[in-house]
Amino acid sequence: MGPAEIPTGPYNAGVDFLTRNLTTRGDKVAFVDADGSHTYHAVAARAERLGAAFLGIGLAPGDRLALVLQDGVDFICAFLGAIRVGLTPIPLNTLLPAADYAYVLIDSGAKAALVSEPQAVTVSEGIAESGWTGALFVARGGADSLSELLKHAQTPGAPHPSRAEDVAFWLYSSGSTGRPKGAQHLHRSLPATAELFSRRVLGVREGDVLFSAGKLFFAYGLGNSLTFPMYAGATAVLFPGRVTPEAVADILGRHGVTIFCGVPTLYSAILSGAALPAAMEALRLCTSAGEAMPADVADAWTRATGTEVIDGIGSTEMLHVFVSNRPGNVRYGSTGTPVPGYEVQVVDDDGRPVRPGELGELHVRGPSLTIGYWNQPEKNAATFVDGWMRSGDKFEVSDDGVLIHRGRVDDMIKVSGLWVSPAEVEAALAAHPHVSEAAVVGIPDGVGLLKTKAFVVVRPGGEAGPALAEDLKRFVKARLLPHKYPRLIEFVDVLPRTSTGKLRRHVLRDAAVDTPARAEPRRP
C-alpha cells in the first residue's frame, strides 16, 4: 500500500498496523503506559499471542469481542490482535453503568469480554442483570496482566484473509439521545483517517510523541492514540486515569509530548490553573474536537503556549475528524473546511444548499463512514441517505467557504420568531474575562414562549451575582444581534457533561426555571 492510497481488496488492518513499522522501527518505543515502554516488536508479538488466545478460547472469525479496557498497551494488543484473526472487537466506555453494559453485551451478541480490573465489578453486575453467557476475562495490570487468557494461546497462525471492505470493529455511540448504537466500521476506515487527517492535515511524523485526553474507546482517542502514531511510526503516551489539568501538565512535561489532543473544556481548565508554562516546551501542535472550540479559549492557549489549536468536527459514525482548520491557517471560532477525501454539504429542511450566512444541517460522506448501526433499521434510514450521513449539526457557511458550527439541530431556539444558536451565544459569553464556561438553553415563559437562559461557570476571582449577570447581558448585546442575548443567567459551579465531555444540555433544560440570576454557584 502506497503512502497516499486507501486500501481496497485483500487487506487486514490488524496486520497492517502491527507490521508496518517492524522492518525499520521495530526497536523504537511505540507506546508508553502505566507499566513502562513498549516497542513496536513487543506490541506486535503480544498482539499476535492475544489473537491466538482468543481463538484458543473458542472464538471464531466474525465473532464479536467486547473490550472494556483502560488506556494501556493491553488495549492496543487486544484490539489489533482480534482484528488480525478476523474477530470484531467492540471497545466500550469504561465509565458506563451496569445497565448499559447489560444492554450492549446482549445487543452486540458478543461471545467474550476482556475487562480491566477496575471495571470488573460493574461489568459483572451488567452480566448478572442481562443473563449474558459469554466468557469473561479480567486484565489485572502489570506484566502478568493477561496470564489467564494467554494460557490459551497456541503458536500464532496466519492472519485472517480479510478485505478492506469487511467489517473490522464496532464503536458504540454515547447514547446521549437514547440507547447506545453500534456503528460498524470497515478495515479500510483506520488507514483512511490516518492518511487523510493525520498525515495530510496534521502532518504527524515518526518523531512525534502524542498524548490524547480522549480515551481509546472513543473514536477521537482511537485515532489520536493508536491509528495516527502507528501509521506514522510515532510514539503515544497512554494514561489510564482521569485526565485532569494537573495530569496533562505532568504528562506533557515528563514525556516531551509534541502533539496534544484535547477538548475545549480541558483547554479552558488548564488555562485557569497554574501548571501551564514549563510543561509545554516540546509542543508543536494541539487538536480539539468533541464540541466547538470557543475562539477566545483557543486564542488564549496560543498566546500562552505558542502552539495552534487545530479545531475540527468528527463523529463516531465517521470515525474521526472530517472538517478541520489547518496548521498555519487557523481561523478561531470556525470549524474549518473539509478534510481531503471527504465531501460535505450544508442544506436547509428541503435539502437545498444554504447561502452564505444562512443556517443548515451538515451532511457528510467519505471513506471512513460506517456502513450503518447494528440492528437499528429506523435509525439507519433516518441518518444515512443516498450515501450521505445527516450529522445533526447546524452550520453556517462563510462567503469564502469556511464552516462555522452553530450547535445541534435539536438545540436551536426560536426567540420572537428568530432562530438563536446556543453555541454562538455560548462563544460570546466565553469571551468575557470572568467566564470559564457557559451553556445556553431555551425555556418556556409563563405563556409558553421561549426565552434563552445561560448557565455560567465563573473563573476564579470572579464574583457570581446580579451585577455580573447584567454585565454579561450587556457584553453579549455588544457582540451579537439584540434578540440573541440571554434573558436569564444562572451561575453554577459545573456544567453537566457526558463521559465523552459533551454538554448534557437536556439536563439543563429539565432543571431550568424562570428565575433571576443566583448569587451563589450551585450544581445543576
Describe the structure.
By secondary structure, this protein is an alpha/beta fold. Among the domains are: 10-27 and 36-187, Rossmann fold (3-Layer(aba) Sandwich); 412-511, ANL, C-terminal domain (GMP Synthetase, Chain A, domain 3), CATH 3.30.300.30. Helix content is 31%, strand content 24%. The strands form 6 sheets. Strands 2-1-10-9-11-12-13-14-15 form a 9-stranded mixed sheet, with helices on both faces. Helix 5 crosses helix 6 (120-130), helix 8 crosses helix 9 (219-232) and helix 11 crosses helix 12 (295-305).
Quick structural summary:
By secondary structure, the chain is of the alpha/beta class. The protein is 31% helix and 24% strand. Strand 24, helix 15 (466-477) and strand 25 form a beta-alpha-beta unit.
Rg (CA only): 23 Å
* Model regions low in confidence, pLDDT < 50 over at least 5 residues: 514-524
CATH-derived architecture of the domain at 10-27 and 36-187: 3-Layer(aba) Sandwich
Total beta strand runs: 25
Shape: globular
CATH fold descriptor of the domain at 10-27 and 36-187: Rossmann fold
The residue fraction in helices comes out at 25-40%
Major β-sheet strand ordering: 2-1-10-9-11-12-13-14-15
Percent of residues in beta strands?
15-25%
Biggest sheet record: 9 strands, mixed
Mean pLDDT rating: 90
- What is the CA-CA span between the terminal residues? 52 Å
- Return the structural class: alpha/beta
Number of helical elements: 16
